[in-house]
Amino acid sequence: MPNELRVWMDPIEHSQVLAALHALAPKRCLEWGIGGSTQSFLQHCAFIQEWVSVEHDETWFKQVRDTIQDPRLSLHHVAPDQPLPAGKNGKAEMIAWNARAEHEPELMASYVGKPRSLGGAPFDFVLVDGRARRFCIEEGFGLLRSGGLLILHDAQRTDYHDALQAQGAPVFLTPWKQGQVCLLRKP
Q: How confident is the model at residue 1 (pLDDT cuts 50, 70, 90)?
């Protein structure tokens, strides 16, 4: 299929998220960190009426924007509030910057806060799969309707566990291969 983005989830994790989507049948969805899975979820879930995505990487944002032509997708680019590293030690500096973004809210505050600035009804479903996940978990859970579901991808990273537990009783799904899926239902 032309214009198909690669899904950066293992088929196991992708199936787990799809199963959760089909069980919940959300109408309004929010995601931090867009990708091929976004395209796939929209293709497989006709019941979704609106999917709001926030992406920090401008180059990736443009590629996705030019690839996914689904009118239900509302895609927003929000650059980090403090610039990404551009030094000679690219990968090492980026890893360090990403780690800082999990503990320093000022690095990605506009990115984390973008969905709230859009207004509208609460979300039925939130997927956290981008940067500043600890802050997106808290913000996303606050934007969920009662009975809504938040999913965190790459939940095996223990750095996120206290942020999940602060919101309720997370359920870590197994098996997983690439990035564990965690479910968090809002009472």
A: very low
| Count, residues in the chain | 187
Question: 137 and 108 in contact (C-beta within 8 Å)?
Answer: no
- Enumerate domains of the chain plus CATH numbers: 11-185 (3.40.50.150)
Amino acid 4: pLDDT: 82
Per-residue pLDDT tens over the stretch 22-55:
999 999 999 999 999 999 999 999 999 999 999 9
Q: 181: buried, middle or exposed (CB in 10 Å: 19+, 13-18, 0-12)?
A: buried
- CB burial class (10 A; 0-12, 13-18, 19+) of residue 121? exposed
Query: Are the C-beta atoms of 141 and 151 separated by less than 8 Å?
Result: no
